[in-house]
Amino acid sequence: MMNDVVRSFEGEYAFLSNFYPAPIEWQGLLFPTVEHAFQAAKCSDPAEWPFFTHGVAADIKQHGQTVTLRPDWEEVKQDLMLDLTRRKFEIPALARRLLATGTAELIEGNLWGDRYWGVCGGVGRNELGKILMRVRDEMRRCPPFFKSKGGLEHRSRRVRAAARPGSLTQK
After folding, report:
1. Does the structure show a pLDDT above 60 at 20?
2. Backbone angles phi and psi of 70, in degrees to 5
């Protein structure tokens, strides 16, 4: 990795986006992306979770803005995002790509005004970027990451099948 900074999660870095296809098992359900699982986690009513197991990530995100939030959402959203991101990078192909970013600062640059998870117009907290860098550091400190964090070999059969090489869209 030659860049000291990844400024957006597009092109060769699209795999860093929460919209990138990566099967995530959460609460016994299989979600096609981190975004799907994250939006489900917002719901105060677990009966709504299955709705988020399919569909286009952008549509799912929009629907997530209409749900009744769980009462502790503001207190748990960071930890949930960290957990879901760890699960995503248990997939070996994605883990290798994250590690290949070296020590680059990862910035979720965007044009849609997200200044909490990312940076827009040079302003923002970049919480997703910080989480990605934390997961990358954890992977480096604790190889092999997949075994120590309950990785791929411990995941359910359906997640393993969905995460097989060639099943993930390569951009």
Report:
1. yes
2. -60, 145
